[in-house]
Amino acid sequence: MRQLENIALIIAHPGHELRVFRFVELYKPRVYVLTDGSGSAGSSRLHNTINILEECGASISPIMGYYTDKEIYRIILEKDYASLTVLGLKILSDFQENNIQVVAGDAVEGFNPTHDLCRYLINLTIALKEANDGIQMLNLEFLLDGLMSEEDASLVVRLDEDSFNRKRKAAEGYAELAYELQSAIQAYGSAPFMTECLRKVVRPDIFSSWGDGIPFYEKYAIEKVNSGVYKKVISFQEHLLPLIHHLSTNLYAETAGNEHTYNKH
Predict the structure, then answer these.
(1) Rounded to whole angstroms, how far apart are CA atoms 103 and 36?
(2) Residue 158's beta-bridge partner residues?
(3) Residue 243's CATH number
């Protein structure tokens, strides 16, 4: 793999940085967080993530908690590609200003629509920067819901006891995630958390990882609507797919024919 420098980390929610904690410590990427992690309760988790990133020596971008969780769900349901276009242009501008060459971020897993939307946006911004600059960037992804095998990974970061303890301490200080981590360690042991696996994205044009069925988030939402908990179902075919197609068209139109277009936003 090429030398890793001028790295960006783009994640959908605060807390995702813990999945690649040692990677962040070692490579000190410039970090972008799309939402504030406020959920339905409206309480932001962003301050926890900023504290962790600063302790790791990472660079904090202007894109931190850009949307609330409620806002991003509205954007998906209403297919508000105009709002996402503005965000995409801001990320592109920051990429240019900081000469970003490598981007790591959430993978498409069908577990959460915001996670998948984050990946779609990553792939689009990389494609636009590559087209504008005439270079090939390195595009890496990591799993949040599942575990990636070392055989499938392009980059494996191994933790020793000291770095694992720092990672565990960071997670335990994250009140919203501490219980989840403790439960996972009790169920699987510490071994899965002693390595961090990232793989190269080779098909950024593929928008799903679940074959011909529907993603987990859609099945889950259908159950919640049927039980009266949710009012609407976020659908891959009805919402995510048309949203990303409109966003792609709009971003390419905004940046076409002018190499400096996205520096104006």
Answers:
(1) 20
(2) 195
(3) 3.40.50
